[in-house]
């Protein structure tokens, strides 16, 4: 017997159907010489400090450097602590029994770092020594799975991938656990979560926010002229930018008194715009954020759903190319779209027999090729799935189309010794831009068409006006902008040698960047302001504490990503990397323990229940640190945030000021005081009859 282990039940069922394992059992399927089971994602993970006998946050225990690292069954929060997930324990017992009954194993978890880690941690935890092979596929179609089974790979060939995944997992533990505990101990009030990739990402957001906030906007003025020649309207703009409006007005009056614009030069050049490459995951997330306002996490979830329904290839890819041996399949994929209404217009623009092979590059394909549709075309999808699918399908059509050729004309004019410029564009060959019918990129002004102009031509002025403009601050990050910054973090490094070495290295990976952003939301470090990402007060406080520390260093994080890539490619030693991470963890722990936490002007309040402990004031709750007392007051009551002033009044005087605009469970608005009863429980008191309505916690 052989055991096939997939990452989740849905994939296991697909595989079971193809290998003839149709007999359903509890936690697996069997038949035709196979057991087919699944892992429910990460069943096994690295143990927490408690598993090493270290409880709470203790300065004397830092840094925590496990040797060896312990593996534990996935845990869930229960009461004040964590306990093993009963579902994970049950499935793990199934897997253990199947491994014992099998001669060998076929690994069918996702073909990437995390998929490899999911299996290897289970294999190691169960102390299994059975031989295993790897099913390495980029699509869940029947054809792809069958091809994968015909070409199973030796498990040993993925040792580098496992070591990179394990190295990443341990590095995140060493940095996250030690840095979080060190800063929280230094703060002495609340938990300040830090992480190997999370903190540099927060630093990017905070720095951009502060640069934007502290930017001094300056006004300037330019003169715009309107012309007409050969029945073509066009405009020119002054090269001069006046700092004073009066100077621009005076120049305009002089021009209006009869000055004649004269063409001083005409430069025309042909520009070839190559089509975009296929989407990788980050590219898809950026486009979906720009076009659909979807978060990176939402886009990944939608893409994963489309993948599991067999409509697209593996979404967690970092490549925009396909290998040479896949090129023959592209016409089949394009023909499949003929049955899709949303693509019919675009398909009329395709040049059959002249497909552009720019997406073919064996050397640029990583674990997986660029995002493609499959030959299974959907008929029914929900709205967001439909939009994401269309993005991927239309990007394929763009990628195989010919280049767009534009004729760009730059005209210089002289008016009263002032230089004016006019820029024109003429589409000579639409190429890939005809697929969507868009001929300029987002953020670009539509380029006007110019009449035929020659040096020495004199032009009439139809209209003339002074335009008020202003310098623009650095734009706040959207998720699309942040993903770009994470992807190209190496390019922002100031040291030239480091920048060259890391120019194509980002922070995080395509598969993890969405989760990193979501973690910052969960930690209440960032929030959305319309489409922009801005730091919260807590996020700015953490940034202020760590911005000059090693843990916020983007260059160092990019170097780690490069090291992990080398380990994956068997070009670097995983043991050396771990020793470097341990030394780094010790360094940042020492650094953070010495951090001085500035007072946040929060009051020192004594617990109203036990009368002995100082309350811990956090973003969402105020609580007594004594677990035996366990007094707590939520900061948000019926939809209204309770201010520090009202918390102080409640604790010290037993009553808040009148809190307005709260919403009952029935959806009705009401105003009330929050008061403390004799047992220190909070409740509502109303303005007129002072009656108590219900608990205010």
Automatic annotation (TrEMBL):
Catalytic activity entry: ATP-independent breakage of single-stranded DNA, followed by passage and rejoining
Record's keyword annotation contains DNA-binding: yes
Gene Ontology cellular-component annotations: cytoplasmic replication fork
Superkingdom of this protein's organism: Bacteria
PANTHER family: DNA TOPOISOMERASE 3-ALPHA (PTHR11390:SF21), PROKARYOTIC DNA TOPOISOMERASE (PTHR11390)
Family label: Belongs to the type IA topoisomerase family.
Protein name: DNA topoisomerase
Organism for this UniProt entry: Kaistella haifensis DSM 19056
